[in-house]
Design goal:
The chain is α+β, with helices and mostly antiparallel strands and 203 residues long. The protein has two domains: 120 residues, 2-Layer Sandwich (Phenylalanyl-tRNA Synthetase, Chain B, domain 1); 69 residues, Transcriptional coactivator/pterin dehydratase (Gyrase A, domain 2). It contains five helices and six strands, in the order βαβααββαββα. The strands form two sheets. Strands 3-4-6-5 form a four-stranded antiparallel sheet, covered by helices on one side. Strands 1-2 form a two-stranded antiparallel ribbon. Helix 4 runs antiparallel to helix 5.
Length: 203
Protein backbone atom coordinates (compact mmCIF):
# COMPACT_ATOMS: atom_id res chain seq x y z
CA UNK A 1 0.00 0.00 0.00
CA UNK A 2 2.98 2.33 0.46
CA UNK A 3 3.23 2.55 -3.34
CA UNK A 4 -0.41 3.58 -3.81
CA UNK A 5 -1.18 6.11 -6.53
CA UNK A 6 -3.76 8.85 -6.84
CA UNK A 7 -5.97 9.72 -9.81
CA UNK A 8 -3.07 11.63 -11.41
CA UNK A 9 -0.89 8.49 -11.26
CA UNK A 10 1.22 10.17 -8.58
CA UNK A 11 1.98 9.03 -4.99
CA UNK A 12 -1.20 9.05 -2.93
CA UNK A 13 -1.35 11.93 -0.46
CA UNK A 14 -2.74 11.69 3.08
CA UNK A 15 -6.46 12.40 3.21
CA UNK A 16 -7.10 13.03 6.90
CA UNK A 17 -5.68 12.23 10.31
CA UNK A 18 -8.06 14.12 12.60
CA UNK A 19 -10.08 11.99 12.70
CA UNK A 20 -7.90 9.20 11.32
CA UNK A 21 -9.48 7.97 8.11
CA UNK A 22 -9.00 5.20 5.56
CA UNK A 23 -10.07 1.57 5.37
CA UNK A 24 -6.80 0.71 7.14
CA UNK A 25 -6.91 3.77 9.42
CA UNK A 26 -3.62 5.06 8.07
CA UNK A 27 -4.94 8.47 7.03
CA UNK A 28 -4.91 7.51 3.35
CA UNK A 29 -7.60 6.26 0.97
CA UNK A 30 -5.74 3.02 0.36
CA UNK A 31 -7.61 -0.06 -0.78
CA UNK A 32 -6.93 -3.77 -1.07
CA UNK A 33 -8.49 -7.21 -0.78
CA UNK A 34 -9.68 -6.50 2.78
CA UNK A 35 -11.37 -3.23 1.83
CA UNK A 36 -14.85 -4.47 1.00
CA UNK A 37 -16.27 -0.98 0.52
CA UNK A 38 -13.47 0.36 -1.74
CA UNK A 39 -12.86 3.45 0.41
CA UNK A 40 -10.93 5.32 -2.27
CA UNK A 41 -12.54 8.77 -2.47
CA UNK A 42 -11.04 11.47 -0.25
CA UNK A 43 -13.98 13.78 0.40
CA UNK A 44 -14.50 16.90 2.48
CA UNK A 45 -17.90 16.03 3.90
CA UNK A 46 -20.81 18.45 3.89
CA UNK A 47 -23.95 18.50 6.00
CA UNK A 48 -25.94 17.81 2.86
CA UNK A 49 -23.94 14.67 2.17
CA UNK A 50 -24.02 13.50 5.79
CA UNK A 51 -27.81 13.69 5.80
CA UNK A 52 -27.92 11.82 2.50
CA UNK A 53 -25.66 9.08 3.87
CA UNK A 54 -27.86 8.82 6.96
CA UNK A 55 -30.92 8.41 4.73
CA UNK A 56 -29.12 5.48 3.08
CA UNK A 57 -28.61 3.74 6.42
CA UNK A 58 -25.07 4.89 7.21
CA UNK A 59 -25.11 7.67 9.81
CA UNK A 60 -21.55 9.00 9.79
CA UNK A 61 -22.40 11.65 12.39
CA UNK A 62 -22.82 9.07 15.17
CA UNK A 63 -20.03 8.00 17.52
CA UNK A 64 -19.15 4.30 17.52
CA UNK A 65 -17.22 3.62 20.77
CA UNK A 66 -16.24 -0.02 20.01
CA UNK A 67 -13.92 1.22 17.25
CA UNK A 68 -13.16 4.64 18.71
CA UNK A 69 -14.95 6.32 15.81
CA UNK A 70 -16.14 9.84 16.49
CA UNK A 71 -18.96 11.14 14.34
CA UNK A 72 -18.12 13.34 11.39
CA UNK A 73 -19.11 16.98 11.03
CA UNK A 74 -19.04 19.24 7.99
CA UNK A 75 -15.50 19.97 6.85
CA UNK A 76 -13.94 16.70 8.00
CA UNK A 77 -11.81 14.85 5.45
CA UNK A 78 -12.91 11.24 5.09
CA UNK A 79 -12.25 8.30 2.76
CA UNK A 80 -15.65 7.40 1.33
CA UNK A 81 -16.74 4.22 -0.39
CA UNK A 82 -16.69 4.97 -4.08
CA UNK A 83 -20.19 3.48 -4.43
CA UNK A 84 -21.59 5.87 -1.78
CA UNK A 85 -19.93 8.87 -3.40
CA UNK A 86 -21.40 7.84 -6.77
CA UNK A 87 -24.85 7.55 -5.19
CA UNK A 88 -24.45 11.07 -3.83
CA UNK A 89 -23.19 12.24 -7.21
CA UNK A 90 -26.31 10.86 -8.89
CA UNK A 91 -28.46 12.56 -6.25
CA UNK A 92 -26.64 15.92 -6.74
CA UNK A 93 -25.28 15.95 -3.18
CA UNK A 94 -21.73 14.70 -3.78
CA UNK A 95 -19.19 16.32 -1.44
CA UNK A 96 -16.04 17.94 -2.85
CA UNK A 97 -12.96 15.77 -3.34
CA UNK A 98 -9.25 16.14 -2.65
CA UNK A 99 -8.03 14.61 -5.90
CA UNK A 100 -4.40 14.09 -4.92
CA UNK A 101 -5.59 12.01 -1.96
CA UNK A 102 -8.12 10.02 -4.01
CA UNK A 103 -6.96 6.53 -5.00
CA UNK A 104 -6.43 5.73 -8.69
CA UNK A 105 -8.84 2.80 -8.43
CA UNK A 106 -11.65 5.37 -8.35
CA UNK A 107 -11.09 5.86 -12.09
CA UNK A 108 -12.49 2.37 -12.65
CA UNK A 109 -15.87 3.82 -11.67
CA UNK A 110 -15.87 7.42 -12.93
CA UNK A 111 -13.67 9.52 -15.21
CA UNK A 112 -11.03 11.97 -14.02
CA UNK A 113 -12.72 14.69 -16.07
CA UNK A 114 -15.91 14.26 -14.08
CA UNK A 115 -14.08 14.04 -10.75
CA UNK A 116 -12.30 17.32 -11.46
CA UNK A 117 -15.64 19.09 -11.42
CA UNK A 118 -15.80 18.30 -7.70
CA UNK A 119 -12.26 19.27 -6.77
CA UNK A 120 -12.02 20.79 -3.31
CA UNK A 121 -10.89 24.42 -3.43
CA UNK A 122 -9.37 25.24 -0.02
CA UNK A 123 -8.24 28.74 -0.96
CA UNK A 124 -11.64 30.27 -1.57
CA UNK A 125 -12.21 33.82 -0.36
CA UNK A 126 -13.40 33.91 3.29
CA UNK A 127 -15.82 31.08 4.02
CA UNK A 128 -17.15 30.26 0.56
CA UNK A 129 -17.71 26.52 0.17
CA UNK A 130 -17.05 24.36 -2.89
CA UNK A 131 -20.01 22.04 -3.48
CA UNK A 132 -21.26 20.11 -6.51
CA UNK A 133 -19.05 22.01 -8.94
CA UNK A 134 -20.28 25.37 -7.59
CA UNK A 135 -19.22 27.72 -4.81
CA UNK A 136 -21.67 29.11 -2.29
CA UNK A 137 -21.97 31.14 0.87
CA UNK A 138 -24.70 32.13 3.34
CA UNK A 139 -24.99 35.78 4.40
CA UNK A 140 -27.00 36.47 7.57
CA UNK A 141 -28.90 39.64 8.47
CA UNK A 142 -30.90 41.00 11.38
CA UNK A 143 -33.92 41.85 9.26
CA UNK A 144 -35.46 41.45 5.81
CA UNK A 145 -34.53 44.98 4.73
CA UNK A 146 -30.90 43.99 4.97
CA UNK A 147 -31.53 40.88 2.89
CA UNK A 148 -33.24 42.86 0.13
CA UNK A 149 -30.57 45.56 0.06
CA UNK A 150 -27.79 42.97 -0.15
CA UNK A 151 -29.60 40.98 -2.86
CA UNK A 152 -29.94 44.10 -4.99
CA UNK A 153 -26.22 44.81 -4.70
CA UNK A 154 -25.36 41.21 -5.63
CA UNK A 155 -27.60 41.46 -8.70
CA UNK A 156 -25.90 44.69 -9.73
CA UNK A 157 -22.51 42.96 -9.56
CA UNK A 158 -23.94 40.14 -11.67
CA UNK A 159 -25.11 42.66 -14.28
CA UNK A 160 -21.79 44.53 -14.27
CA UNK A 161 -19.75 41.33 -14.65
CA UNK A 162 -22.24 39.51 -16.89
CA UNK A 163 -21.97 36.52 -14.57
CA UNK A 164 -25.17 35.42 -12.92
CA UNK A 165 -25.53 33.58 -9.60
CA UNK A 166 -28.32 31.58 -7.99
CA UNK A 167 -29.88 33.47 -5.07
CA UNK A 168 -31.95 31.76 -2.37
CA UNK A 169 -33.59 34.53 -0.36
CA UNK A 170 -34.99 33.98 3.14
CA UNK A 171 -36.21 36.25 5.93
CA UNK A 172 -32.85 36.73 7.64
CA UNK A 173 -30.28 35.24 5.28
CA UNK A 174 -29.47 34.84 1.63
CA UNK A 175 -27.50 32.03 -0.04
CA UNK A 176 -25.39 33.02 -3.04
CA UNK A 177 -24.25 30.21 -5.35
CA UNK A 178 -22.19 30.60 -8.52
CA UNK A 179 -20.60 28.51 -11.26
CA UNK A 180 -19.46 29.05 -14.84
CA UNK A 181 -21.73 26.98 -17.05
CA UNK A 182 -19.90 28.03 -20.22
CA UNK A 183 -16.64 26.58 -18.91
CA UNK A 184 -18.17 23.59 -17.17
CA UNK A 185 -17.34 24.54 -13.59
CA UNK A 186 -15.86 27.09 -11.20
CA UNK A 187 -13.62 29.53 -13.08
CA UNK A 188 -11.72 32.75 -12.54
CA UNK A 189 -14.95 34.58 -13.41
CA UNK A 190 -16.49 32.99 -10.32
CA UNK A 191 -13.60 34.05 -8.11
CA UNK A 192 -13.81 37.61 -9.44
CA UNK A 193 -17.53 37.60 -8.68
CA UNK A 194 -17.24 36.36 -5.08
CA UNK A 195 -14.42 38.82 -4.39
CA UNK A 196 -16.77 41.64 -5.36
CA UNK A 197 -19.64 40.19 -3.31
CA UNK A 198 -17.44 39.95 -0.20
CA UNK A 199 -16.76 43.69 -0.48
CA UNK A 200 -20.46 44.62 -0.20
CA UNK A 201 -21.16 46.68 2.91
CA UNK A 202 -24.08 45.46 5.03
CA UNK A 203 -26.77 47.80 6.29
Amino acid sequence: MHNSLNVFNEPLMVCGTSPMTGAYRDGCCNTGVNDRGTHTVCAVVTNEFLQFSKSRGNDLTMDYPPTGFKGLVEGYKWCLCVSRWLEAYQANVAPPIILKATHIKTLEYISLEELQKFEYLPNLNSDWIALNNKIEKNFKFSNYNGVVSFANKVMQIAIDQDHHPELNVHYNFIKVRITDYENGGVSQKCHRFITAVDKIEFI
